[in-house]
Every structure is written in structure tokens, then in C-alpha cells.
């Protein structure tokens, strides 16, 4: 049996990896948004965050591996979208380093054209990514939504919202729209928030902002 990472952000990082092209399909802020949303979703599912007036609020004490509960607790109430955006690029580095330290990936630092720094990520065991794909595929097409593993349901919700084509090409997002909506409803408010953040990201890019 193939071992997979426990944390939802680590799983989403690996699900963003394109095994054919041997690189991340998304990176930078966009990947960071998905990873931040994954961390928020994990906290929500584990009862460490709840929602009050459509904003996250600390609830049951417990582990806070990425420091999000501490951030939220020390701030005035802010939207889920705000917390998805905050420190998004730093989140990519944090999760990448976590995976590298755990032996899941290899990171090679190089310079493109000898000038621009670039981190080349390689997944050490492709079976890990394929196992995660299998869980997401099963959640999308398998048993009743209420019986789907909560992290597999969240992976589909986040992949759809974050437009991770490695997991859900556009055609699949359209074909399984109802099922995705049901899995998203199970997964909490962070997935809809990341969808709005990425829509705003596209709008800003289209307008040259």
C-alpha cells in the first residue's frame, strides 16, 4: 500500500503536479491560494475553525501546523477570501519544504538563462500522486457523498475551485457540476472562497491589473 501525506495542503500540492510534464501545473499565488484554502478546510473539518457571520473563527483548540488559527485569532474578523489570499506565496514554500523534508519530492534550485531563479520540483514516487488521483476520482464518481472520505471530498472541491486541470479538466468540472457542488457543501467555506479569489485573479490578469 502506498503511503500518502496526512495534511490536506501537502496532498493538494502533489495533486497539482503534472506527471507527464514532470512539473507543477500551477505555481505562485494561484497554487498558494489553493494551499491556503486546503489548510483552512483542514482546520474547519477538524473542528479547529468554525464560521460566524461568514467569517472564520477559532473554535476547538488543537494543532495549528501552518499558524492560520493564530493569525485569525489575532486579527479582527475577516472574510475567508482574505485568509485564502494572505501569505499565499509563503504557503507554497512552506508546503514544498514540508514535502521535501518528508522525502516526498526533490527540489532543485537553478537559474533560467543563468539569471532568473527557479525551483524545479520532482515527485520521487509517482504512485503517491496516482493514489491521490484515485481518491479524488472515487469521490467524484463513486459512493454516496455522505460516505466519501472527507479529505477526498475536499480534494475534489478544492481542485474544482482552484481549476487544477491535473485533477479535473474543464470538461469534467462541467460534467460533474452537481456532484462537485455536493462535495463542496461537505467541505466547508474555504473552497467557494478560493473559487472567488481565482476568478478575481483571472479578471485582474485580463484587465492588465
Automatic annotation (TrEMBL):
Stored Pfam families: GPP34 (PF05719)
Q: Which UniProt keywords apply?
A: Golgi apparatus, Lipid-binding, Membrane
Q: Where in the cell is it found?
A: Golgi apparatus membrane
Residues folding into a coiled coil are none
Record keywords: Cell membrane included? no
Q: Which residues cross the membrane?
A: none
Chief location bin: Golgi
Q: How does it sit in the membrane?
A: Peripheral membrane protein
Q: Which Gene3D superfamilies match?
A: yeast vps74-n-term truncation variant domain like (1.10.3630.10)
Q: Which InterPro entries match?
A: GPP34-like, GPP34-like_sf
Q: Does the keyword DNA-binding apply?
A: no
Which named protein is this?
GPP34 family phosphoprotein
Query: Whose protein is this, by species?
Result: Actinomadura rugatobispora
Amino acid at each position: 500500500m502506498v503511503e500518502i501525506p496526512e495534511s490536506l495542503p501537502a496532498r493538494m500540492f502533489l495533486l497539482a503536479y503534472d506527471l507527464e510534464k514532470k512539473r507543477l501545473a500551477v505555481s505562485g499565488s494561484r497554487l498558494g491560494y489553493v494551499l491556503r484554502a486546503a489548510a483552512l478546510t483542514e482546520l474547519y473539518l477538524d473542528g479547529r475553525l468554525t464560521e460566524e457571520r461568514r467569517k472564520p473563527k477559532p473554535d476547538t483548540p488543537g494543532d495549528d501546523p501552518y499558524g492560520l488559527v493564530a493569525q485569525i485569532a489575532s486579527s479582527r474578523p475577516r472574510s475567508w477570501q482574505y485568509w485564502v489570499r494572505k501569505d499565499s506565496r509563503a504557503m507554497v514554500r512552506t508546503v514544498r519544504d514540508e514535502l521535501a523534508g518528508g522525502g516526498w519530492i526533490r527540489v532543485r534550485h537553478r537559474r533560467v538563462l543563468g539569471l532568473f531563479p527557479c525551483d524545479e520540483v520532482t515527485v520521487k514516487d509517482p504512485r503517491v500522486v496516482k493514489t491521490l488521483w484515485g481518491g479524488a476520482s472515487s469521490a467524484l464518481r463513486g459512493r454516496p457523498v455522505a460516505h466519501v472520505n472527507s479529505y477526498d471530498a475536499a480534494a475534489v472541491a478544492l481542485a474544482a475551485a482552484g481549476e487544477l486541470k491535473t485533477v479535473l479538466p474543464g470538461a469534467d468540472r462541467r460534467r460533474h457540476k452537481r456532484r462537485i457542488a455536493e462535495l463542496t457543501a461537505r467541505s466547508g467555506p474555504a473552497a467557494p472562497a478560493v473559487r472567488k479569489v481565482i476568478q478575481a485573479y483571472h479578471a485582474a490578469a485580463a484587465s492588465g491589473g
